[in-house]
Amino acid sequence: MRAVDGPARRAQRILLLACVWAALSALLGVAGVLVGDGPAWLLWPSGVAAAATAVYACLVAAESTRGVAQLFWQRLAGATGLLALGAVSHAVRTVFAGHPTTMTPFNAVCYVGAVALTAFAMLRLPHPPRTWRANRAIYLDIAVVGVAASLLTAHFLWSTPTPGSVAPALPSPGPPVPGLATGLMWLVVFTVVAAVATVIRVGMTGAGPVPGPTLWFLSPIGLLPPAAWLLYPMVGAWTHLSITAILMVPLGLMFTLAARAQIRSGGSPARPTRSRWVQRWRRISVVPYVAVAITVGMLIYVTLDLGYLPPRLAGGSLLLIILAVVRLRIAVSDNSDLMERLEAQVNHDDLTGLPNRRRFAATLQRRTAPATVAVCDLDGFGTLNDRLGDERGDALLRAAAARITETFGADAFVARLLGDEFGLLLPGEDEALGERLVRAFRLPLRVDGHDLLVTVTVGVAAGRDEVVPDLLRRAELALKTAKRSGANRVQEHTPQLDSTAQHDADLAAALRRGLDRGEFRLVYQPIVKLPGGRITGVEALVRWHPEGGPPVSPADFIPVAEQTGMILDLGLWVIETACADAARWRQAYGTAAPRVNINVSARQLLDPDLPDQVASTMARYRLDPDKITLEITETAVFGGGVALNTVRELRELGVGVALDDFGTGQSSLTLLRTCPVTTLKVDKSFIDELNGTAEQEAIATSLSTIARTLGLRAVAEGVETKEQAVRLEALGYRYAQGYYFAKPGPAELIDVALEQALHDRVVQQ
User: Can you spell out the DSSP letters for 703-716?
Assistant: First the structure.
C-alpha cells in the first residue's frame, strides 16, 4: 500500500499545482484587461509552469506503472517536454521582444512534435487479440470516424475566418503577429488527428493496460486549437492575452488529470461494470455513431444555412454514407452468423456434437407421426470416469455416441440428453429397439487405443398422435425402473409405470411432510452374544407412522427417499437420534451399554459431508467411536469411487463398518480386501439352510471361518429358532440377531432388557 499511496499523494499535489497555475493565469488575464493592458509576457510564466507541471505528472505516472503502461507515460513525458520546450522558447522571445512574437519554425516543430508523439503513444498501446471479423469492423469504424473528423475539420477551416485576417474586437496597441494563422492551422490539423487517435483508441479498440478515463481526459485536447482559432479575434486587442500561452494552461491540466487517473487506478486497465446491461452496452462502440450523428447535424445546418450543400461536403458525405452502409451490412452479416452459432450451441452438445436435450424435446413436440423413443445410460460410467480420468471419460462418451449413431443410421435422431444418458428417436413403432441398443454395446468400445466393454440400460416408449410429445418422459420413467432392477437390461413403458410414478410422487410429498412433522420413530433390534443371549449391540431401524394413517413399510418409503434425495435428511435424523440414545445408554450402563448399528444408504455414501456430520454428532454427544457401527451394503461400495472413499473416511473416525446382507452381493470376497470393514452380517438366506445337509451349511460355515481368519466379527441375521441358534454357536458364530431373541422395539424396551440383564448379573454375584 505504501508504494501506491506515495504516487497517489504526489498526484494530488501535482493536480493542485496545475489548478493553481490555471487560477493564476485567469486572474492575471482578467487583471490585465481591467488595468488596460499588461506586458506581452504576462501569461507566459503560468503557461510555462503548467507545461512543466504536465511533464512532472507524466514522470510520476511512469514511475507508478510497469511494462507497456510505463512506456506509454514515458512517451507522454517526452511529448509534454517538447511542449514545455516550445513554450519556454516562445516565452523568452516574447520577453526580450517586449511584444507578441511570431511562432518560429522551432516553436512549431516543438508543438507539432508534441502532438505527434502523443498520437504515437496512443496508437502504440496494445489491444487484445481479435478475429479477422473484428478487425474488419474496427477498420471500417476507424474509417467512418476519420472521414467524419475530416469533414468537420475541413468545414471549420473553410468557414471560420483566419486569425489575423479580421480586425480584433478592440484596437490592438501591439504589432500584428505574422505566421500565427499558419501555425494555428497546423496545430488544428495535428491536434485533431491526435484527438481522433485518442477517441479511436479508448472508445473503439480498447486502451489496453491504460485505464479508459486516463485517455478520455486527453481527448478534449483536439478542441483547444479550434477554440483558440475562434477566440483570437476577441482577445487580439490585448497584447498580454497570448493565445499560445493561454492554451498551455488547459493542456497542462488535462495531462495532469490523465496522470492522476492512471495512478488512482492502481494499474487496473478497466473499471468493473455494474450490471449485465452495462456490460452489453460497453461491448458496442458508440464512437462511430456519435461521429456520424455530429457530421449529419453539421451537414443539415450547412444546407439550411446556405440553401445548398457545397460540393466538397457532398463528396465527403457520400463517402461517409458508403462506409456507414458497408459497416451496417457487415454488422448484420456478423449478427446473423453469431445467431447461427448461438443456436447451434444452444441445441447441440459441445462434447459429442450430437443434438442436446432441448433439441430432442423440441423435435418430439413437433412430431405427430408414430415414433419410438429409447433412453439409455452407460452402466457404471461414474466409476469408470473416476478410474480413467475425465479425458478418457469424455472419449468414452464420444465413442458411445458414435456407436449409437453408426448402429441405427440416418433414420435415427440421436441426442445426448444428460451426462452419460443418450436419447434415440426412430420413426414408427419398433418393439425391438431396446434389445438392438443393448446388443450394440456387446462389442467393446475403442477408447485411446484400449478396448472397454461397457453395457447400457435402456428404457423404451412407443406411441402415436398426441402421445408422441410425451415419449421422452415415458422412456426415462422406464429407464429408472430398469435401473432399479440392475444393469444391462431393457424396460418398456407400461401404464402401470405411470401409476407407480404418481404413487411415488405422492409418497415423496407425504415423506417430506412426515419428516417435518416428526412422524418417524426409531426402533432397535438387539444383537446378542452366543450362547447366552446377552445384548451387546442394537440395530437402529426407522419406522414411519403418518398422522391419521396406517404405518408405511420401509420397503415402500426407503426407495422413494433414495430416488428423491430425501434419504439425506432422513439419514441425518436417524444418526442424530441413534447417537442421542447411545449416549443415554452409555451414561446409564457404562461399559455394558450396547453398540449401536446405524444403516447408511448408498445415496448417503455419495454425500461428501457425511463423515463430518457423523463426527460432529458424536462429538456433540461425547460418544466414543467404538460405540457406533455403520451398516452398508455390498452393492453400495462395489464400484469403488466416491462411496468407497467415504467409507474409508468414516473408518478413520474410529467407528465400526459392517457389511449388511453379506454373501448376496457381486464380489464379497474382493470387498474384504478393499473395504475397511469390521463386521460381517451374514444374510438370512444362509441361516435358513441350517440343520440340513453339509452342502447346505457349507456357505454359512465358510463365512464364519473367513471372518475369524480376517479378525472380523461375524453376526448371523434372521435367527428365528432355538435350533438355528444352537447350530450357529456350533459352527463358530459368536453373535446373532433375529426374532428368536427379540423383535425390533422402541428404546424403552432395550432399557428394560438392559435393566434385567444388570439385575441378573447382580443376583448371580
Answer: HHHHHHHHT-EEEE
